[in-house]
Amino acid sequence: MAYRLLTSLFCLLVLVWTPPLVHGQQIPVHQWPDRLTLCGERVPLERQDVWEMMDQAFVSSVYNQPRVILWIKRAHRYFPYLEKRLRERKLPDDLKYVVVVESALKTYATSSAKAVGPWQFIDGTGKRYGLRSDRWIDERYNFERATEAALNYLTDLNKEFKSWGLAIAAYNCGENRMARDLKAQGVSNFYDADLPLETEAYIFSILAAKSILSNPAAYGYSIPAAKRYPPLEYDEIDLSVSHEMPITAIAHACDTTYKIIKEMNPEIRQNALPSGHFKLRIPKGKAQGFNARLTKELSR
């Protein structure tokens, strides 16, 4: 009884003597850059409705510390490849922020609409842009192949709508919905269009991701390179399969595990490959002599 009384008194003293928070001292008020563009198109922040949408997206992102930290860590792995492909294809660098908002750069991201992978392709659109999707292989999970499909899709959308803002919005809501809404409303600018709320918020979420990831230190995020996820290193091999081949055989031929092969090739959906031709990633340094080791493994 005495112990309980002393504990209660201690807790009361802590509450009484805890100093109050000083307003503004604990939580900084961050602000995005005064001028914003998306793929070179100016964002009309002088409009109150646009300013408030941007404010809500930015506040929701910048103070979500776990999410931003993981953005930064994963971007260190994936942005170098993506930025290189955007330069090679002469596409706007800002398109890299689309994949951040789509999946937070997570390979195995899924949605209630059955969109999967880092670029969140639904099955039909993925197949339309050349991504294999069946019980054996689902290339929507492969970052490089899904990236090419996404860039092709965004390029086509930009040609159709003559605006990157509308193209990116259409990537979210679909080109048919976008075309129908623009025609019905008689507008040709994203900021003038009344679109699904998810689509309107989508563009501002991308702008928020761009603002934060372009200068994370300005918002208190300082993550050393050693704490970020490094780009993946691997060898790539061409493999012709005449009959069903267990993934374990491939793993043993690489002196690695089933799990490593599946993680390096997330598009493989079963525990074996069907007949066909495949381009696979294997651990760095294991390409040389792979075929001989695989033949030996299969002959056991």
Q: Specify the CATH architecture of the largest domain.
A: Orthogonal Bundle
CA-atom Rg in angstroms = 25 Å
Structural class: mainly alpha
- CATH names the topology of the largest domain as Lysozyme
The profile of the biggest β sheet is: 2 strands, antiparallel
Tally the helices: 12
Summed up, what is this model?
By secondary structure, the protein is mostly helical. The protein has helices at 2-17, 48-62, 65-88, 96-103, 123-128, 143-161, 164-173, 175-185, 197-214, 247-253, 258-264, 290-298, and strands spanning 37-38, 41-42, 234-241, 245-246, 272-273, 276-283.
Write structural notes for this entry.
It is globular, with a radius of gyration of 25 Å. Mean pLDDT is 92; it is low at 1-21. Helix 6 packs across helix 7. With 300 residues, it is mostly helical. It folds into 2 domains: 39-226, Orthogonal Bundle (Lysozyme), CATH 1.10.530; 234-298, no CATH class. The chain is built from 12 helices and 6 strands. The protein has a two-stranded antiparallel sheet with strand order 1-2. It has a two-stranded antiparallel ribbon with strand order 3-6. The longest helix has 24 residues, at 65-88. Strand 1 (37-38) and strand 2 form a beta hairpin.
